[in-house]
């Protein structure tokens, strides 16, 4: 059936970030005068809310439910975060469109702008990613890492809650002193020129919600994708350090959106309206390396590619789960044969020990799941 003259129905997760990503695709399709409806679908990953991503038992926990609705003919296409997609896609489906990628790298977010290199020994950094955890420990062995789950807003609130709540308490105590017999010292008076109400009115919405959040774990920092923060409208509210992608290597496909569809006219329509060829080249290289090494959410594996003219520069970093071992590599690949060259690059990484690290990480994840 032709995609023209009817409404295209796109499957998406119901989180705020997922809906924002789906809206990007909808808007691109709308430029071709296509009517588009977003349909929220609950996934396995959404249902298991109290587990970290790598313990969900399989890659694709946020993907399969959406794709199945497309395969069954109920919906026309599905919108995914590419980094969540397994490399073994159902044969009926194609990646019909890959829009231009947002920032691919990770950021370290702290309440006061502290950089990763300046975190003190014992500092607690929150992350749900084995890859981020391993790289954090490799770069700063004296820190501690703790699990961090939830949507982007929730993760930020968990970081900001303790410091904001302490600040609120200090302001309340100072106000009570000013109203009592002890006026407080001049430093307190200078520090709190605003009333509590004025201070509260100046907070961002995410900070106001953090004030009400119960604190279970106090984080000194959290590490997450820059693209998710930016698409959620939070990046400019936060103190953050961009981690250089060639060194703190992001997940394959991070920052990119993928639209899957059956291999028919809908896929052709999506491709013509949505696809950004440079992003497709870069993410093809990244996911080819991932596929060849057999990685996924169970392996601390990062791959980042950048297309510059006729060359794709690719960096890879594969680590043990505790960050004490690593295999790294960087190479310039010819753009005209980027997929085949990525296979060759992955083979060299495997020969250097990357395949062993991936297999050991997979066994470690399976053993952990059995213990729990």
Could you explain the architecture of this structure?
This protein has 372 residues and is an alpha/beta fold. The protein has three domains: 1-99 and 256-275, Periplasmic binding protein-like II (D-Maltodextrin-Binding Protein, domain 2, 3-Layer(aba) Sandwich), CATH 3.40.190; 106-242, Periplasmic binding protein-like II (D-Maltodextrin-Binding Protein, domain 2, 3-Layer(aba) Sandwich), CATH 3.40.190; 276-372, 2-Layer Sandwich (Double Stranded RNA Binding Domain). Helix content is 40%, strand content 20%. The protein contains 13 helices and 13 strands. The strands form three sheets. The protein has a five-stranded mixed sheet with strand order 2-1-3-10-4, sandwiched between helices. The protein has a five-stranded mixed sheet with strand order 7-6-8-5-9, with helices on both faces. β1, α1 (16-30) and β2 (35-40) form a beta-alpha-beta unit. α5 crosses α8 and α11 runs parallel beside α12. The longest helix is centred in the middle third of the chain and has 27 residues, at 152-178. 40% of the residues are buried.
